[in-house]
Write a structure and sequence with these properties.
Elements: H1 4-28, H2 45-48, H3 53-69, H4 75-100, H5 117-122, H6 126-133, H7 145-163, H8 166-188, H9 196-205, H10 208-223, H11 226-239, H12 249-267, H13 269-275, H14 278-285, H15 287-308, H16 316-347
Amino acid sequence: MPDKKKRIEVLDGLRGLAILLVFLFHGYYIWDAYYPFGKLYAGNLLFKYGSLGVQLFFLISGFVILMSVEKTPGFRIFIKNRWLRLFPGMLICSLIIYLTAGFFYERPFGIPELKSLLPGITFINNSILERIFSTDFPVLELSFWSLYVEVKFYVIFGALYFIFNRNTALAGIFILYVSAALLQILIVHQLLAENAAMKIYIGSFIHFGWFVAGALTYIYYRDHDKRYLYLLIISLVCSVFYAYKFHDPVLYIYLISVILVFLGALFWAPFGVLFESRFFRLVGFISYPLYLLHENMLIASMIKLHRHIPQIPYLLLPALSFIFIGILAYTVARFLEPAFQRLLKKII
């Protein structure tokens, strides 16, 4: 039987790796129109595909959420616990982003409006709110999209688990993924015309395969039942087809590498030790507020640093900005978020 404590430490370290990958993508690649160094690092594959840290987050979530529901007596308590885990950090970070936007005015998304706070604190993506209220909801942080996907997974998986059972819940989530992937393939080959409803459906469920793979990893990790190993392999192979529309073979290689790192850290102890290190676990500990805060603030900080201290080497600009945001994220994770959670627990 695996050591429960070690498993949790490895997952914390993997969260640290996931946010570091996302940082490389945002700090060196995707916002080249704003970087002081422009497209200087555009050819670096580690930076270019760093966004796949989000898929690593989804794998971890699938693992952890199944472990969580099995310890929870009912759906209402499960959703309450998930809300208490996510809402305090989201509200605190959203307010920080909104209130500091005037200082970080170089933000790629500009100065947000007050209504931009609503998608984040409700965990409902902008496009759905725009259809409900027939008005626009400008993006506060583009990175929030993955939280909207995760919350959909929590609600649907939790409901299926407690109404039916574990296997039905996993099958239901997987069917939603496969249907979204098939829709996307049909649209890519122009066999189907995409409309707004299809776009929302695909955006909501195209990543659900990773949650299933993470959950199956947990089952095999705990029970070593080979039936679930075969299901895990099938789910992983199917999950990579979310990227079909990109027609990028290198992307698949990177995805396979992310999968191997995830599995290797959990099942091969000498490799897992790396992610049990203090550094990775610390970054994993602050990964949630760091993920919420970093993108626009990172770019604005880089621009400010370069303006005032142009001697800083280009390679260090994102790293120094990321350290500053990391300190802010640590303050949120260590002090503000727990205090708010304790307050909410007293109220509800």
